[in-house]
TrEMBL record:
NHL repeat positions: 321-358
Tagged with keyword Metal-binding: no
Chain ranges passing through the membrane: 1147-1169
Protein name: Uncharacterized protein
Entry keyword Protease: no
One Pfam family hit: C2_ITFG1
Membrane topology (UniProt): Single-pass type I membrane protein
Domain T-cell immunomodulatory protein TIP C2: start-end pairs: 1037-1141
Organism: Rotaria socialis
Domain (Biotin-protein ligase N-terminal) ranges: 397-487
Signal peptide: 1-22
Membership in a protein family: Belongs to the TIP family.
Keywords for this protein: Glycoprotein, Membrane, Repeat, Signal, Transmembrane, Transmembrane helix
């Protein structure tokens, strides 16, 4: 197939892609004439073979020239280039090349006549040996560039490499960049889409869509890695003009920018509104006047932007989709010659067209002979001059006929064209739906249409071949009517078991009850969307018959979109019209092609696993309310206004403001309480009561300039209503510090690498009193702390007394040490190394994951520097154990450079909480899915390890990735995930921070929807200080975050189905802060399904100079309650204050309801009996009265 497909390659190679650079003079000798202007000569460039610059030979004298930088061959002067000029000096010199150089030295060109004829049959010059990774094969080749010696350089997208083919050698190519597997290393590529040659630097400039970035590689044979020119840009096309400006099309932002080499931001040259608005802008070319031409695929036209223009003009097509000479159909690759003649790859019409300047119609120069295998035909519906990757794409058959609504088939084709070759099928198309046509396709699409009963006769005959097609491995996608037809009443019978389809409007609780066209709200993987709706279907999936994946649900819980296995194939159905575009509706919040693309990825790449349980986390809270905060990067948690509800302290995206967001336990909402503006760049904030007034303060870590090598710090003092202005301190920090109670006096200190001269940093502790630095306690016998690592106060020697955990820098490697507190009497307890052969240690965390009453050290690591081998280790009984977690081949920890700022400077951490309240802490981690490039939150559920469920039990517990949490997994571009009790009901919810290509961050919440009757105990330990100004209110001073408080619970519960198990569970409150560890100022301990009283709760605070045993035990605690402990007086635990708040469990509520109903029934029975007794008494009195009268007679 490839030999036929690449017959059209010759068209690209010899006709259109030679990009003339008038300032270069390749293949010429030194001082050769290179222009029509005889004053211009060729000056060779250092480090390049037979490559030079064509410029004015007499513009300067030898005495005016300066030498180039001897190590880099660069010039500091603007408009100067380093060249050889042996008539002046033996070493390279900086020679002026002014902006008007291309006009002064016009190139010697041979113009192609506007009426030139091309040979109609092509020959293969690269590939042609089937799809593969050998050097004589290609796999979805995209952009290409032809050098002056006819060497073809190809962006081989499917093989993640750049391969070049020498002129005259069509047998084998040579890999010149990449080929080292897909990745983001500087030695790797990820789906390169375009490439060009910079003759001056003799380098390749490559567009990587997968990473996304633009990189440059030297063409020297000893080059092993490239350099990043532009980062965070979703580029598809590249071009370079005669002045070495290069142009990049960004498909995410729908724009084209012009860059100078070394420039990061560029100048916008294409983008905006009106005629400057494009759809699916990819291919571009620049002429000698710096005019930019862009193919506007979905609008079927080519646009031109003259230099400096705000809007473009149509220069080809623009007369709607069609095959007339005035029309184009999906234009892609472009070329512009020196006469201004434009050549266009008219992909869907299978032809190449020529449009002269000002022409109203084009001329077919190659192709136009229909789809076919001939040498004068194109065998791809997506052929392109500059992008040939679609030639290797699978085929999608899209029904177009009387059973489809007007425009629906074409709109779906537009959505899928980048991933499939599109062939329309139907009774009036060249091909109809039958066994033979289905055998050539990977996907069949049945779009929306009219009434089911009216359209069924038109497609009835397709039922049998479609059933066979799907069961033998084919993919079926049905939207609206197509989803109805997947059922049987009537339909193609594609759903296994008792699966069926029916009208959504007839379902209970449907928001729409009529057949009028409208928009319907639904939850696509937990995200509320509004979709065009034309009496769409609801899907009744029989999940017992075959594995299925639910993609979207209506607001009443009915299934709106799903994928289900059927035999070897898969069936995808979407009830509404996700393919509808802006012409169909004027709503901003639409799916557009999101649903289709997500579904197709599932349909092609994966097999659905059978869902055996309901999702725990859902995308909406009670009353279908969403929890979302825009422009909020959470830095700390704490109860700012002392209302017993934990609030959130956010940093804005610009990093110059702290926003206090107050939470509401009655509704999943947050409101802005106060905004504090900072002059500088905020990196983190630590919440604590730093001055002992029982009011929450913030310590801000910031930089005054982004290039500073240290952090500054300052206080925002809180008064429960607002924050003060920033009060900086005179000390600086090498890394983000952490909070701790170093001396056991309830005052919060800061620990880190600290300096008073911004040069010499030492491990030290800042002690505050009266809102100033009272003392600096230097840790003299401690090595320097390891950068971006964990420092914590936590009990790891199991005596309930908090110890100091440090990560030190030992020979540029991390080493862990544990010291006894207080800090004035530090004594080393133990030290140990990370696990063997670890490349990267992420932040440590601490939890009692095996519920044995002892905290364990948990360490996420990468075994190699690209994190392709990601693991989590646990240290127990003085030994490291690798947790037997099956991440699969695709999940891994992201590397820092895969995160947007500021997360590219923050180490990765996992967050711990017992979200299912079974007594065993679970985890959540942000991980990268290598198969699709998404960064998502992965819930890791704590389970007992057995060979049956884990295969290799290296530890007694394992953590199972919850891949069925579809609402959480739908939140892509995740940068942070943390457990948080939004409604203060004791059930840990989940907060996820989503980024975007524009680096706007939104904090969204997912509610913990556990329905079983599980129990918990919530413990909060506050500081010893009381609030003098609020004592008359008789309420505890809530909201003072106290780090390092040890908590241990002991009770009898049901464990693994066995009753009367005595368990112990240890926890630590806020063992560390900083670096977005985001630990909560309380501890939630799950009790499982037992309603028993908690036998013991033991609370211990960090030791001080007077006592090492500041411990208090509380007995017989009511489950589903919160205990708040105020350790005052500090040294007398027996007199510590505490208060208990009870949240009735569902069992108690149900019991109360049952008792109430019983009382009502008994009352009713008694009332009836009393009424009947009264009637009987009345009757008896009447009888007695009549008896009296008879006696009288």
């Amino acid at each position: 197939m490839f030999s036929i497909l690449l017959d059209c390659f010759i068209l690209v190679l010899f006709s259109f892609t030679v990009r003339v650079k008038s300032q270069s003079c390749d293949g010429m000798s030194q001082y050769d004439r290179c222009s029509r202007n005889s004053a211009c000569a060729c000056f060779h460039v250092p480090g390049a073979s037979n490559t030079g610059i064509c410029t004015d030979r007499y513009t300067v004298t030898c005495s005016e020239l300066t030498s180039c930088n001897h190590s880099t061959n660069n010039c500091s002067q603007s408009d100067h280039i380093c060249v050889h000029h042996p008539q002046c000096r033996d070493i390279p010199v900086c020679y002026p090349v002014p902006n008007y150089n291309k006009q002064f030295c016009p190139p010697i060109t041979i113009n192609t006549p506007a009426n030139a004829k091309w040979i109609q049959n092509g020959v293969t010059v690269a590939g042609g040996n089937g799809e593969g990774s050998a050097t004589n094969q290609l796999n979805r080749p995209h952009g290409l560039f032809v050098d002056d010696d006819q060497t073809v350089v190809i962006a081989d997208l499917g093989n993640d490499r750049i391969i070049q083919w020498k002129n005259g050698n069509a047998t084998n190519g040579e890999v010149v960049v990449g080929g080292n597997g897909r990745g983001n290393g500087l030695h790797q590529l990820n789906r390169p889409t375009d490439v060009l040659i910079d003759k001056v630097s003799d380098s390749l400039i490559i567009c990587e869509y997968g990473n996304p970035r633009v990189v440059r590689w030297s063409r020297r044979s000893d080059t092993t890695q490239g350099e990043i020119l532009i980062d965070n840009i979703h580029c598809r096309g590249l071009a370079m003009d005669d002045q070495r400006y290069f142009y990049v099309s960004d498909v995410e932002k729908d724009e084209v920018r012009r860059y100078q080499l070394g420039e990061k931001n560029g100048t916008l040259v294409v983008g905006g509104n009106g005629l400057s608005q494009l759809k699916e802008r990819r291919h571009l070319v620049v002429d000698q006047q710096q005019n930019v031409y862009v193919s506007d695929e979905r609008n079927n036209r080519v646009m031109k932007w003259t230099k400096g223009a705000k809007e473009g003009i149509v220069v080809a097509g623009g007369q709607g989709r069609g095959n007339a000479l005035t029309q184009l159909n999906g234009p892609k690759g472009l070329f512009i010659d020196t006469l201004g003649t434009l050549y266009v790859a008219d992909s869907a019409n299978h032809r190449v067209m020529r449009w002269t300047q000002g022409a109203k119609q084009g001329t077919v120069i190659v192709g136009g002979n229909g789809l076919g295998p001939g040498a004068n035909q194109f065998n791809s519906l997506d052929a392109s001059l500059l992008e040939l990757g679609t030639l290797a794409l699978p085929i999608a058959l899209i029904y177009r006929g009387p059973a489809a609504c007007h425009g629906c088939s074409e709109t779906i084709a537009d959505r899928l064209r980048s991933k499939y070759q599109i062939i329309y099928v139907g009774p009036k198309e060249q091909l109809d739906v039958n066994k033979d046509t289905l055998s050539m396709a990977q996907l069949y699409v049945q779009p929306g249409g009219g009434d089911l009963d009216e359209t069924w006769p038109h497609v009835r005959r397709y039922a049998s071949p479609l059933r066979d097609y799907v069961r033998n491995g084919g993919r079926y996608l049905g939207t609206c009517l197509g989803a109805y037809l997947a059922g049987t009443l009537p339909g193609f019978d594609l759903l296994p078991g008792r699966g069926q389809t029916d009208q959504y409007i007839t379902s209970k609780g449907a928001l729409i009850t009529s057949e009028i066209d409208t928009v319907v709200p639904l939850y696509w993987r937990g995200i509320l969307r509004h979709v065009y709706f034309q009496d769409g279907t609801r899907l009744m999936i029989d999940r017992t018959a075959a594995p299925a994946e639910i993609l979207a649900v209506y607001t009443n819980g009915e299934i709106a979109a799903a994928v289900q296995n059927n035999g070897k194939g898969r069936v995808g159905m979407v009830g509404p019209h996700p393919e509808a575009d802006e012409n169909d509706m004027n709503y901003e919040n639409t799916f557009r092609y999101l649903l289709i693309i997500c579904f197709i990825i599932h349909a092609i790449n994966g097999q659905t696993k059978k869902i055996t349980k309901e999702n725990v986390f859902v995308g909406h809270f009670s009353n279908n309310k969403k929890y979302a905060i825009d422009d909020c990067i959470p830095l700390a948690f704490g109860d700012f206004n002392a209302d017993k509800i934990v609030d959130i302290f956010c940093r804005n995206t610009k990093a110059n403001s702290i926003v206090v967001m107050l939470n509401d336990d009655r509704s999943p909402t947050s409101k802005v309480q106060y905004i504090a503006n900072i002059t500088g760049i905020i990196y983190d904030a630590l919440a604590a009561d730093f001055d002992g007034d029982s009011k929450l303060d913030l310590f801000i870590i910031y930089k005054t300039k982004s290039d500073e090598s240290f952090y500054s710090g300052g206080f925002l003092w809180g008064d429960r209503v607002k924050l003060s202005d920033l009060q900086p301190i005179t000390y600086s920090f090498q890394t983000i510090p952490t909070t701790l109670d170093a001396n056991g006096d309830s005052y919060v200190e800061l620990l880190g690498m600290i300096s008073n001269d911004q040069i010499n940093f030492k491990p030290a502790c800042l002690i505050f009193k009266n809102r100033t630095v009272y003392n600096v306690e230097t840790l003299n016998n401690v090595d320097d702390l390891f950068p971006s690592s964990t420092q914590a106060t936590v009990d790891l020697n199991h005596d309930l007394v908090a110890d100091l955990f440090l990560t030190i820098n030992h020979n540029n490697k991390p080493k862990f040490r544990l010291y006894e507190l207080p800090i004035t009497k530090m004594t080393l307890i133990v030290e140990y190394d990370p696990p063997d052969d670890v490349a990267i240690c992420h932040l440590s965390t601490f939890a009692d994951i095996d519920a044995d009453g002892e905290l364990e050290h948990i360490l996420p690591v990468c075994m190699n520097f690209d994190c392709s081998d990601s693991r989590i280790y646990v240290r127990d009984n003085n030994k490291w154990y690798q947790l037997p977690i099956d991440f699969g081949k695709d999940l891994r920890f992201p590397s820092k450079n895969e995160f947007p700022p500021p997360f590219d400077q923050i180490p990765i951490s996992i967050k711990v909480a017992d979200y299912n309240l079974d007594g065993f802490p679970d985890m959540v981690a942000v991980m990268k899915n290598s198969s699709n490039g998404n960064t998502v939150s992965i819930i890791l559920q704590n389970r007992a390890c057995s060979d049956a469920n884990s295969g290799n039990c290296t530890y007694n517990r394992t953590f199972a990735p919850q891949i069925d949490e579809i609402y959480v997994l739908a939140a892509t571009n995740t940068t942070l995930a943390v457990f948080f009790d939004v409604l203060e009901d004791g059930y840990p919810d989940l907060l996820v921070l989503q980024g975007s290509s524009k680096q706007n961050f939104q904090l969204i919440g997912f509610q913990n929807s556990l329905f079983q009757d599980v129990h918990f105990i919530k413990v909060m330990v506050l500081s010893t200080f009381s609030c003098d100004t609020c004592s008359h209110q008789r309420k505890l001073p809530y909201g003072n975050d106290q780090p390092g408080q040890s908590i241990k619970m002991e009770t009898i519960t049901i464990l693994d189905g066995i009753k009367d198990n005595w368990i112990q569970l240890s926890a630590v409150q806020m063992s560390q802060s900083g670096q977005l560890t985001l630990e909560l100022p309380y501890v939630i301990i799950g009790l499982g399904a037992t309603p028993n009283f908690v036998e013991k709760i033991t609370v211990a605070i960090p030791p001080n100079s007077q006592s090492n045993q500041l411990i208090r035990t509380y007995t017989q605690m009511i489950p589903n309650s919160q205990i708040v402990v105020v350790p005052s007086p500090l040294t007398n635990p027996e007199k510590w204050h505490s208060k208990l708040f009870i949240t009735p469990s569902r069992m108690i509520l149900h019991t109360g309801i049952a008792l109430s109903v019983t009382l009502v029934v008994l009352s009713g029975v008694l009332a009836i009996l009393q009424y009947r007794e009264k009637i009987e008494d009345d009757r008896e009195r009447k009888v007695q009265s009549q008896r009296f009268h008879y006696d009288a007679l």
